[in-house]
Each structure stands twice: as structure tokens, then as C-alpha cells.
Amino acid sequence: MDSTTKKVRPGGASVLDLDPKSTVGGGVEDAYGEDRATEDQLVTPWTISVASGYSLLRDPHHNKGLAFTLKERDAHYIRGLLPPVVMSQELQEKKLLHNIRQYQLPLQKYTAMMDLAERNERLFYKLLIDNVEELLPVVYTPTVGEACQKYGSIFQRPQGLYISLKEKGKILEVLKNWPERSIQVIVVTDGERILGLGDLGCQGMGIPVGKLALYTALGGVRPSSCLPITIDVGTNNEKLLNDEFYIGLKQRRATGKEYADLLEEFMSAVKQNYGEKVLIQFEDFANHNAFDLLAKYSTTHLVFNDDIQGTAAVVLAGLVGALKLLGGTLGDHKFLFLGAGEAGTGIAELIALEMSKQTKAPVEETRKNIWLVDSKGLIVSSRKDSLQHFKKPWAHEHPPATTLLDAVKAIKPTVLIGTSGVGSTFTKEVVEAMVEFNEVSLPLSLSLSLSLHKPLILALSNPTSQSECTAEEAYKWTQGRAIYASGSPFDPVEYNGKVHVPGQANNAYIFPGLGLGLVISGAIRVHDDMLLAASEGLAGQVTKENCEKGLIYPPFSNIRKISAHIAANVAAKAYELGLASRLPRPENLLKYAESCMYTPNYRTYR
Ligand SMILES: O=C([O-])CC(=O)C(=O)O
Ligand SMILES: [Mg+2]
């Protein structure tokens, strides 16, 4: 035994031997990024420095709880620290699921899941992956929204890095305080627009934590490579400013140069500390910063904005899925958005781009099929001078319309998309109008094709409380005709003896696979074509059976397979565009993506 494999008694630094051959996925998980183990390395057992004894049971990355075998308990000085039974990971999972189901309140379930992640990381991910449809709403939207609102009260331990105005000039040092070194994905928010819940300041941390849990569970990026960050420049939320349990800076938001300088220091420090292949996902920034940050850093860093680009890719994939049900092409449809912020304009632009690719018409032309309504009404050319820059491309020639209902009646869209973050805005009148004129005014070619009069209604705002209309309302008000998807999950609805299964048009379908594809190819920039590739990757996973059931998205239970396909598509595009730095290009990118994915099964320790 050489010095690197020596085990020491509790209290000292020690080393844990892992048997790479005895584990499923254990030898693969570290097999990507710069750390890819060579065949040679795999012949000798790996060694990782971790605690032993009591500290091992307190180390969430290595703790297995009752699953430690007696041999392991002897070898790592934990015999007697656990009750005598040895339990399999599967049985532990069964017990935990049973316990979580006992809780009545979603927030209790959320807290139980977060506690588990802090205690036993692999068990947390195994539980989440194996029960993704049940537990996604617990660790992600809608419950994560409530968790952020109450984050000060439920805060126990830090789960990510907090960079506030107080850290100005010291951000590089702060990054170095994070215990993990080989970071591949950062999700960062400044908490100003958390879901549709508004400014939650520093308590927005729940979002990067939740998104990164999905990077691992859905996309197979290993947990130690993920870094959640919240930038705290204050909050304008009076309630939080007056809340004694608020965890952030109690001041109003910094803006202008002060804000830009802090962000600039952050972006430079990230590049300096982790290199240029670290992926930075901007999440839940307010419109007035989101577009500018994306424009500024997309040419110098590997960045994307999930709310603008991730959401766009998932919606485009859903439209492609819906066309399989409706017939026709994107160009046969007319789109109306309520909400002209990040998601609205992001989706609109990606649809226009895809239409332009399909028809070879310039994007300025294809944009004309797409209309947006903001808080002041339909965006039209007469409003151009007073519009924010990201709205201007959508200001078409048309008389004004001040309400959504007026706009719907004037434009007669076939697809209605809600992205305003405001709940209950698709009223009965609005939804009924969608049915009414879809009966009479579709182009003949489309009316004759397949299913007549099926308006497509996407109520994308999150969490559930902000949904533009519920699934039940959509089906009821359209007499079961609507094709409906929402951002947050809704249960299936029975209407007139038929069960309708709503889709979940949430960027969670896209960002884990997109991120995996960028990481495994060593991409250095995100290009729009990669978003289209991600979207195609998702759309390609909608099966004939899904279509027959009226689904426009594949079920989340297949998400790891879906993510691998998305990753392979994205990586292929990165190589094609000359933006991939990992050379040589693996021949079979799908197999390669799958082989790189983290699996949470326990490892055997020698
Ligand atoms: O987090 C989600 O569920 C989707 C999203 O990005 C948002 O609503 O901002
Ligand atoms: Mg978001």
C-alpha cells in the first residue's frame, strides 16, 4: 500500500479507495471533462481524499448511511457508528419515498429532499432520477417558488455561493472559497425576477440550486461540477426589506454602473478561475438586465440565458410536436404572445429563425406571422418610439388594440402563448374566442388538414399560481379541443369522458441536455444553431405513441435518454461550427454523451 492509499484513523486526513470495477457508473461518472480516466488508470483502484470514521457519515458526497457493508464499516472506522443492519440503496430509496409521501405540504417535501441532499447526495439523486415525474414538482417548479419566497425562514445551510456588493473587489477570492475545483456549469441569478413571483432578492438562491440539481438528475452532469451562485445587489421588495429573517442585503437594488461593474468583475473572475469552457447560465434576471448581459457576454464567454433561449428551444420543440397533430407547417400558423419580455421575445425570435430556415424567407419577413401583446396592448408600429429595444422587431403595421381579447379578435391567432408572468390572464372570453375564429378563418389548406379547430394554448408562466389558465379551464372552455401545455405541471383532466394529458413546456427539457452537449464537446460559445439543434433533439424524441395520446412532449420519465439525444445534437453542431475544443471529435456522440452521464448508484469502497 503506498502512501496515497493509506487509511488513517478518524480525525486525520484520510483516503478512500474506490473499486471502479465493482460499481455501475462509478467509473464513468468521472470519465468526462478533463478528468476522463484512461484505461490504465482504471486498472489501479482510484483514490480520493475524504474523511473516514464519523466524518465519513457526515460527508454527503460519500455517505451511504445504512448501505455501508460490514467490510466497509471495518475498513473506514465506522463499525458501531451505525445500527447493525445493512440496507440496499433500493430499500433506502423505498423508505425515503414512503416518508416523503407522508408529508401533506409541498414545502415539507422540498425540505425533506434538501435535507437528503445534504446527508447523502447519491441517494438524493437516485430517488429523484427514479421518481422524476413525482419529485420534479417538489425540487423544482412549482414548489421551488414557494421555497424562494420563504427561503429566509427555511434556510439551514448554504447550498451555493453568495456574491453581494460587499464582495466587490474580492470576487475571485470568494470563488476560491468554494470547495470544488473543477466546475463545469454555473447557474447564476440576481433574484430580480424569480419565476413569475418578482423580486425575491438573495432568496432567489433556490432557483440556481434547483436548476443545477436538474443538470445532474436529468442531464448527468456530476454534482461536484455544478456551482449555484446568487448575486446580491439588494432588493426592491419591501416585504423582504422589512422581514427580520431576510438573508440578503437590506438595501434597494444597485443599478447602472455599480451593477454593471459587479457583474463585470464576476464574469472576469469566473473566466480567470475556471477557464473559458465553464458554462454560465443566466437565470431569472429582470428584462432590463437579461438582454444586455446576454448581448454583452455571449461574444466573450460560454453563456446562455435560460429564460430567453432555453424556453424558446422547448417551445419550438413543442410546436413541432403539435404540428404532428395538426398538420401544416410553422408558416401556416399565426402566433400571438401575451408578454413581450425574455420568454416572449426569445420564443418569437427562435420561431421566426426556424421559419426562415424552412422557407428561405428573410427573418424580417417570417417575424410578420408573430404578434406580441405587452402591458400596454398589441405591439404595433405606432408605438415604436416608446418601445424597449427587444420589442421593436415585433412592432408590425396594424391598428392598436389595448386588451388581449381585442388583440386576439384582431389577429386571429392559431397559437396563443402566455409569457407575462401574470396568472389567470387567459380568460374564458379569450379562450372561447380562440375556438370561435379557428372554426371559420383558417386557411383552407390547414382547415382541411387533420384535426380541425384545435387551438394551441401554451400557458407558460410559473409557478402554477401564475399560469395564464389552468389545464382544466383550457379543456373546458374549448370543449376539449385545445392542445394545451403549461410551464408548471398540471394533472390530466377528464372532460366529456376523455382524459386529456397536458404537456409541460418547461425549459427543464432543454437546459440539462444543452449543458451536457456544451460540456462534453468543450464548446467555447453558444450559437443560435445549437439552440435549434437542442430543440430538434427534443422534438425528435416525441414518438408515434406520444402523438396518438395527443402529447406534444415526450414524458419526463425518459428525460435522461432525451438529454443524451439533445447533448449529442448540440455537440455535433458545436463541432460543425468549429466551436468545440475537445478533439478529436468522438465518432458516436450519442454513445459518448451517454457514457459521460453521472449515475447515482453507490460505489463500493475498499
Ligand atoms: O424555472 C422554471 O420552471 C422555468 C423558468 O425558467 C422560469 O419560469 O423562469
Ligand atoms: Mg427561469
Structure summary:
With 606 residues, the chain is α/β, with parallel strands linked by helices.
Task: Based on the model shown, name its key terms.
4 domains, 16 strands, binds oxaloacetate ion, 606 residues, 7-stranded mixed beta sheet, alpha/beta, Hemocyanin, N-terminal domain, disordered N terminus, Rossmann fold, 11% strand, binds magnesium ion, 5-stranded parallel beta sheet, Malic enzyme, 27 helices
Characterization of this structure:
The structure is a single chain. By secondary structure, the protein is α/β, with parallel strands linked by helices. The protein folds into 4 domains: 53-129, Hemocyanin, N-terminal domain (Up-down Bundle); 142-305, Malic enzyme, N-terminal domain (Rossmann fold); 310-440 and 451-505, 3-Layer(aba) Sandwich (Rossmann fold), CATH 3.40.50.720; 527-596, no CATH class. 43% of the residues lie in helices and 11% in strands. It has 27 helices and 16 strands. It has a 7-stranded mixed sheet with strand order 10-9-8-11-12-13-16, sandwiched between helices. A 5-stranded parallel sheet has the order 3-5-4-6-7, with helices on both faces. It has a two-stranded antiparallel sheet with strand order 1-2. Helix 12 links the parallel strand 4 and strand 5. The longest helix is centred in the middle third of the chain and has 21 residues, at 306-326. Magnesium ion binds at residues 283-284, 306-307.
